[in-house]
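fyi for ur records
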Amino acid sequence: METMKAARIHSYGESDVLVYEDAPRPNPNAGELLVRVYATTVNPIDWKLRAGYMRSFMDFPMPITLGCDLAGIVESVGTGVTKFKVGDAIYGMPQAEIGMYAEYAVVSESDVAAKPNSLDFIAAASVPVAALTAWQSLFEVGNLAPGQTVLIHGAAGGVGSMAVQLAKTKGSQVIGTASANNHEFLRGLGADEVIDYKTTRFEDVVKDVDIVLDLIGGETRERSWQVIKKGGSLVSTVPPFPSDKDGANYSVYGKGIAVQPNAEQLKAIATLIDTGKLKPLVDKVLPLSQVRQAHELSQSGHVRGKIALQVR
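which gave:
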């Protein structure tokens, strides 16, 4: 059996359950690609899964190779693959949302797209989960339209920074909440207004927005209903997801979003990147062998953009 290096967990727990070790190298089945992974990233779902918070609906057999994002080169293809060939540079995320913390990974050809030409592998790996989450939250679930106003909580993070830029490509007004040291950064991405959540309660200065994109949850979400105009929406990426019932007192719709792979959206996102309309943001790059440190940094909640893991 051929082996590879991978970062896996054999039990749920803190960051010390992550082990950088030899693991079996996978083989592609029909419709699948074997990808030589050059880079991946840390997303909040990674450490939530590692800690066992997702067991009620994402309980995989141990050991688990974590990781959602990937950018790399097609090493071999399964039968029936028509969109890619050996040597193609691709990026994307798998349906299962695991398996990318490794030197090689298997993905369905329908879950990935050609890597943006203007990006290296590290930058490309930072895109799929964050950009697809922002795209699907704003455009599919929120139906954001030109001229509308969106309030984005956690605007400086991986998803938030993508959401700011994507909303501006739609011709929308963007308000973001972030700590003071991220205000100029967000204005540089196109945010029209930025609120320091540490010193200002956003509900005191914001009203009648069309959409709230909630990337925080908890009491931040609960305080958000009152700033949305009647008929507007609160879209949240944080379980437990809100419902229309939660916003009934304000005549507001509540919606949850769990990101899904989408090759066509990845193609559109790559075009925006290559034409300079969307910029991925990597805050920190660490080797895959330092995955524990990367998880701890992600859990701190003070990351601007994404944390990338360099595999090759």
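The two ends are 22 Å apart (CA to CA). thats all i got for now
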